[in-house]
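Priority: medium. Attachment 1 of 2:
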């Protein structure tokens, strides 16, 4: 039985998803730091975290501490099977179900190394992409996110997770 929703969030988008999911499934919700105090080791949880350089941030420590019933990764890229499979393999996950959902991007909330990395990325990507007419949907999304920021968080994006949970509980 899943005991809680546990999340790691840097700028708040993953936390928004954790809020939506825990309410929808009537589960308790903890940040990873709270969960370490509140839940016994090995508790079964749904783990949500943000994507950093192609990997689910904190996956290893979460998997070492808790039983992960499923993992939800939150990034700025648009959803897609290939994108999700890429994140899964780069994170070197176990065989638990993995779902990828689009979160958002807010440069103003980034600090330290994370800000530095994204500033470099943005300063290279935006001039290179602006004005091009041949960008595909994923590239257009990336350009818009880097240039304007954005929040794509919505309960609808969690539908596959909710469906998986309900079918599994039956
Ligand atoms: C250093 C850094 C690397 C990132 N790498 C990726 C990435 O590889 N793929 C992606 O889709 N998003 C990437 N992102 C974007 C975040 O995953 C996205 O903004 C996410 O919604 C952040 O969630 P949070 O608000 O819970 O921290 C990166 C962000 C930062 C700061």
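Attachment 2 of 2:
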């Amino acid at each position: 039985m899943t005991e809680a929703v546990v999340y790691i969030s840097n700028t708040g988008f993953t936390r928004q998803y954790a809020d939506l999911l825990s309410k929808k499934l009537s589960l308790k919700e903890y940040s990873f730091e709270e969960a370490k105090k509140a839940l016994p080791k090995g508790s079964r949880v749904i783990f949500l975290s943000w994507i950093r350089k192609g990997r689910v941030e904190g996956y290893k420590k979460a998997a070492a501490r808790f039983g992960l019933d499923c993992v939800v990764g939150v990034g700025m890229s648009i959803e897609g099977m290939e994108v999700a499979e890429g994140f899964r393999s780069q994170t070197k996950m176990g065989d638990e179900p993995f779902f990828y959902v689009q979160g958002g991007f807010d440069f103003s909330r980034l600090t330290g190394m994370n800000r530095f990395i994204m500033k470099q990325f943005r300063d290279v990507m935006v001039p290179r992409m602006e004005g091009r007419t041949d960008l595909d949907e994923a590239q257009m999304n990336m350009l818009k996110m880097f240039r304007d920021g954005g929040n794509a968080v919505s309960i609808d994006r969690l539908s596959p997770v909710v469906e998986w949970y309900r079918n599994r509980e039956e």
